[in-house]
C-alpha cells in the first residue's frame, strides 16, 4: 500500500454514467475475460484497501464493494459521484478517483499520484489535457465541489476555478506511463482498440 501525506486514502470508482454509447452498463462489459469494474477495483485495491463505487448498486459486487449513489438526480456526471463520496467519507480523506471505463489503469500510476499529494488535487495533464477521472482529490474540497455541481458544472470547470497540482508530461514519463491508464472504453470498438494497443489489462 502507498505512503501518502493523508491519513485516510479511499479509492473511488466512478460508475454512475448512462453508458449510452456502449448500449449497456459499462461496469459489466467484458475485457479480456473480466468485467471492467473488476479490473478497475483491483487496480485501485492495489493502492488502498478502502474502495467505494460511486453509482447505483450492482448486486454482483455487493458482497465486496461499497456503493454510494450519485448526489441528487442520477446521471449528472463524474462530479456528482465525487460529491456523493466526499459527503460520506472523513473530511481529511484523500480520494483516488478512476473511471469504471478505464480498465487499463496502472496501480503504479495511482500510487505515484497518491504519493504526490500535499493538499491540492493531483491531476495528470498529458498533452495539456486534464485527465480528471484518473486523479486525486481531497475530500475537504466538498464545499467547492458542491457549489460547482449546483451551478451545473463539472470536474473540469471546478478545476478552472481552483488550484491543483498538475502531474506533468515529465512526471508521467518518469513513471513509465504511456496513456493506457486513462484510455476510456465508451463503445464496443474501444475494447478491441485497447486490447490491440496494450494487450490485456493488469492489476499489478
Write up what this structure looks like.
The protein is α/β, with parallel strands linked by helices and 204 residues long. The protein is globular and about 40 Å long. The protein is built from 7 helices and 9 strands; from the N terminus they run E-E-E-H-E-E-H-E-H-E-E-H-H-E-H-H. Strand 2 and strand 3 form a beta hairpin. The mean pLDDT is 90. The chain has one domain: Spore Coat Polysaccharide Biosynthesis Protein SpsA, Chain A, CATH 3.90.550. The strands form 3 sheets. Strands 5-4-1-6-8 form a 5-stranded mixed sheet, sandwiched between helices. Strands 2-3 form a two-stranded antiparallel sheet. It starts with 7 loop residues before the first strand and ends in a 6-residue tail after the last helix. The chain has helices at residues 36-45, 78-88, 107-116, 142-150, 155-161, 169-174, 188-198; strands at 8-14, 30-31, 34-35, 51-54, 66-68, 93-99, 122-124, 134-138, 165-167. The longest helix is centred in the middle third of the chain and has 11 residues, at 78-88.
Task: Map the helices and strands.
Layout: E1 8-14, E2 30-31, E3 34-35, H1 36-45, E4 51-54, E5 66-68, H2 78-88, E6 93-99, H3 107-116, E7 122-124, E8 134-138, H4 142-150, H5 155-161, E9 165-167, H6 169-174, H7 188-198
Parallel strand pairs: 1-4, 1-6, 4-5, 7-9
Antiparallel strand pairs: 2-3, 6-8
Helix pairs in contact: 2-4
Amino acid at each position: 500500500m502507498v505512503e501518502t501525506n493523508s491519513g485516510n486514502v479511499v479509492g473511488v470508482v466512478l460508475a454512475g454514467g448512462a453508458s449510452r454509447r456502449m448500449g449497456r452498463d459499462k461496469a459489466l462489459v467484458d475485457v479480456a475475460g473480466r468485467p471492467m469494474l473488476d479490473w478497475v477495483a483491483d487496480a485501485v485495491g492495489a493502492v488502498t484497501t478502502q474502495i467505494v463505487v460511486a453509482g447505483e448498486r450492482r448486486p454482483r459486487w455487493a458482497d465486496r464493494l461499497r456503493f454510494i449513489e450519485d448526489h441528487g438526480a442520477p446521471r449528472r456526471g463524474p462530479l456528482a459521484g465525487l460529491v456523493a463520496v466526499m459527503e460520506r467519507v472523513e473530511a481529511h480523506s484523500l480520494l483516488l478517483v478512476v473511471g469504471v471505463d478505464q480498465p487499463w489503469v496502472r496501480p503504479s500510476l495511482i500510487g505515484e499520484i497518491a504519493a504526490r499529494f500535499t493538499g491540492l488535487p493531483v491531476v495528470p495533464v498529458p498533452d495539456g489535457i486534464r485527465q480528471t477521472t484518473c486523479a486525486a482529490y481531497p475530500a475537504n474540497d466538498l464545499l467547492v465541489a458542491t457549489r460547482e455541481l449546483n451551478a451545473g458544472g463539472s470536474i473540469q470547470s471546478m478545476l478552472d476555478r481552483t488550484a491543483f497540482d498538475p502531474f506533468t508530461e515529465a512526471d508521467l514519463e518518469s513513471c513509465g506511463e504511456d496513456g493506457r491508464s486513462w484510455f476510456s472504453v465508451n463503445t464496443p470498438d474501444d475494447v478491441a482498440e485497447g486490447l490491440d494497443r496494450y494487450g490485456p489489462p493488469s492489476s499489478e
